[in-house]
Design brief:
It contains 5 helices and 12 strands. The chain has 204 residues and is an alpha/beta fold. It has a single domain, classed as Rossmann fold (3-Layer(aba) Sandwich), CATH 3.40.50. The strands form 3 sheets. It has an 8-stranded mixed β-sheet with strand order 4-3-7-8-9-10-11-12, with helices on both faces. Strands 1-2 form a two-stranded antiparallel ribbon. Helix 2 packs across helix 3. Bound molecules: guanosine-5',3'-tetraphosphate. Guanosine-5',3'-tetraphosphate (G4P) binds next to strand 2, strand 7 and helix 4. InterPro entries: PRTase-like, PRTase_dom, Pur/Pyrimidine_PRTase, Xanthine_PRibTrfase.
Length: 204
C-alpha cells in the first residue's frame, strides 16, 4: 500500500535492525485518515469473504481494526492482555509470548462474543514472530469459528512470523512488507524503497 509505505518513509524511525518506531501514526499518536485508508484497503482485500467479525489484540491493533470493522459493518472484538475486573469466567484463553518484549501475556476473549459459524478477520499492527496472530487464531478455533484471513499493517518479512502463518495455511494480507531494517534504512519487499534514518526517503 503506497500511502502507508510513504508514511513509513516519512515518519518511521529505525531503532535497530529489528525494530521500527512508528509512534507518530500507529503506536501512540494515531493518524485517523491513514487508519481509514488502511481499513478501506483491508476491506477491498477481504470483501468477498463474508466476514462476520473483526478480531484484534489491544492496544495498537484496535485503530486499524475498528476502521475495517466499521466499513465491513461488523463488530470489532479485541483480545485483552490484562485481566479484566468484569471479565473473569467464561473466557477463551491463550498464551502469547512476545520475543520483541520478552514477556508472555495471557490473552482473553469472552465466550459471549465469538461463536461457531463466525467468519473472523484477524487484524494486527505488526507481524514479527507471529505469536499474537497464532494466539488469536487459536482463540477463534476454540470457539469453533473460522479464520477467514489475517490482515497486517506492517509485516517485518525478515522475521519468521509470515512464513509460519503461510505454512499453517492462513491467508495473510500485509499492507507494508519490510525486507530489512539494516543500516538505519527501511527496505520494502516489493519495490526496494529506502528510508534513511533521518526520514528523508530515497530510492535504491
Ligand atoms: P509477534 O506477535 O508477531 O510474535 O510479535 P512480537 O511478539 O515480536 O511483538 C510483540 C509486540 O511488539 C507487539 O506489540 C508488536 O506490535 C510489537 N512489535 C514487534 N515488532 C515491532 C516493531 O518493529 N516496531 C514496533 N513499533 N512494534 C513492534 P504489543 O506488545 O502488542 O503492543 P501494543 O499493541 O500494546 O502497542
Amino acid at each position: 500500500m503506497k500511502l502507508l509505505q510513504e508514511k513509513i518513509q516519512a515518519e518511521g524511525i529505525v531503532l535497530s535492525d529489528q525494530v521500527l518506531k512508528v509512534d507518530s501514526f500507529l503506536n501512540h499518536q494515531i493518524d485517523p485518515q491513514l487508519m481509514l485508508a488502511i481499513g478501506k484497503e483491508f476491506v477491498s482485500r477481504f470483501a468477498q469473504d463474508q466476514i462476520t467479525k473483526v478480531l484484534t489484540i489491544e492496544s495498537s491493533g484496535i485503530a486499524p481494526a475498528i476502521m475495517t470493522a466499521m466499513l465491513l459493518n461488523v463488530p470489532l472484538l479485541f483480545a485483552r492482555k490484562q485481566k479484566s475486573l468484569t471479565l473473569q469466567n467464561n473466557v477463551y484463553v491463550e498464551q502469547v509470548h512476545s520475543f520483541t518484549k520478552q514477556v508472555t501475556n495471557e490473552i482473553t476473549v469472552s465466550k459471549k462474543f465469538l461463536e461457531e459459524g463466525d467468519k473472523v478477520l484477524i487484524i494486527d499492527d505488526f507481524l514479527a514472530h507471529g505469536e499474537a496472530a497464532f494466539g488469536l487464531a487459536k482463540i477463534v478455533r476454540q470457539a469453533g469459528a473460522e479464520v477467514a484471513g489475517i490482515g497486517i499493517v506492517i509485516e517485518k518479512s525478515f522475521q519468521n512470523g509470515r512464513a509460519k502463518l503461510d505454512d499453517a495455511g492462513f491467508r495473510v494480507e500485509s499492507l507494508a512488507r519490510i525486507k530489512s531494517l539494516t543500516d538505519g534504512q527501511v527496505r520494502f519487499v516489493e519495490d526496494s524503497a529506502v528510508l534513511t534514518a533521518e526520514g528523508n526517503g530515497s530510492h535504491a
